[in-house]
């Protein structure tokens, strides 16, 4: 899988738009026309916000508006192709986009939208995950044979940075990834500020 591919369509779309925006070669954005320059930038920012658990219901409409404006206002095929890419994502993966906006990445790719948990039925209390966790997000006591009463292992969600290291070292497959709607706790009260120069929606 190339660096611009992902099993998560939202992630793949964002990676491709971001790469185009930052690409200094002749294949990248030349920044000559505003609809493309501002629109692609804003699309990436909006997709970023959704991946960070800050999705808003207005974002699909904003993204579609950007796709239309870049298609209409972009002066070359490169920009129009990116508009088509964005429009295709919005059309083909609208349900997936809505799930992301609700805080769930069913592909378990968007790290802010998943949580790591320890299955107590599988955990043998070996301590390997706690040792490897650089964020001190795992607590528990290593089991000693013949003794009882140890604190079971668990992951403190507020400390976990979703690095995935604990999964790699667990010999029992006891660390699992679950889809986790952020339940509103990290949702912003206001919209993420952005600069959609192509879009007439003001708020
Ligand atoms: S649409 Fe084409 S000409 Fe316009 S900024 Fe994008 S890459 Fe440049
Ligand atoms: S995913 Fe990373 S930060 Fe989270 S508990 Fe595992 S090792 Fe710690
Ligand atoms: S590495 Fe796995 S088995 Fe060992 S303490 Fe952590 S979750 Fe339990």
CATH architectural designation of the largest domain: Up-down Bundle
- Shape summary: elongated
Task: Round the Cα radius of gyration to an integer and report it.
Answer: 21 Å
CATH-defined topology of the largest domain: de novo design (two linked rop proteins)
Ranges where pLDDT stays below 50 over 5 or more residues in a row are: 183-190, 194-203
Bound molecules: iron/sulfur cluster
Average pLDDT figure: 88
Number of helices: 7
Beta percentage is: 5-15%
Query: What is the topology, as strand order, of the major beta sheet?
Result: 1-4
Task: Please characterize this protein's 3D structure.
The chain has 203 residues and is mainly alpha-helical. The protein has 2 domains: 93 residues, de novo design (two linked rop proteins) (Up-down Bundle), CATH 1.20.1440; 54 residues, Alpha-Beta Plaits (2-Layer Sandwich). It is built from 7 helices and 4 strands. The strands form 2 sheets. The protein has a two-stranded antiparallel sheet. The protein has a two-stranded antiparallel ribbon with strand order 2-3. Helix 1 runs antiparallel to helix 2, helix 1 packs antiparallel against helix 4 and helix 3 packs antiparallel against helix 4. It is elongated, with a radius of gyration of 21 Å. The two termini are 39 Å apart. The C terminus is likely disordered. Bound molecules: iron/sulfur cluster (SF4) (3 copies). The site of one iron/sulfur cluster has 14 residues, from helix 7.
């Amino acid at each position: 899988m190339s660096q611009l591919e992902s099993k998560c369509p939202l992630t793949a779309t964002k990676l491709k738009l971001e790469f185009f925006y930052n690409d200094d070669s002749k294949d990248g954005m030349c920044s000559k026309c505003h609809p493309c320059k501002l629109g692609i930038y804003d699309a990436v920012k909006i997709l970023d916000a959704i991946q960070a658990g800050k999705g808003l219901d207005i974002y699909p409409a904003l993204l579609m508006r950007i796709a239309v404006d870049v298609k209409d206002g972009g002066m070359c095929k490169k920009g129009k192709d990116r508009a088509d890419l964005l429009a295709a994502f919005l059309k083909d993966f609208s349900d997936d986009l809505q799930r992301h906006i609700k805080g769930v990445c069913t592909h378990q790719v968007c790290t802010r939208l998943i949580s790591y948990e320890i299955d107590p039925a599988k955990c043998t209390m070996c301590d390997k995950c706690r040792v490897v966790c650089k964020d001190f997000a795992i607590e528990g006591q290593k089991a000693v044979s013949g003794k009882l009463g140890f604190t079971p292992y668990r992951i403190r969600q507020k400390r976990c940075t979703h690095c995935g290291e604990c999964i790699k070292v667990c010999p029992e497959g006891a660390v699992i990834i679950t889809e986790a709607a952020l339940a509103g706790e990290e949702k912003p009260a206001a919209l993420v500020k952005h600069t959609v120069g192509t879009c007439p929606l003001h708020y």
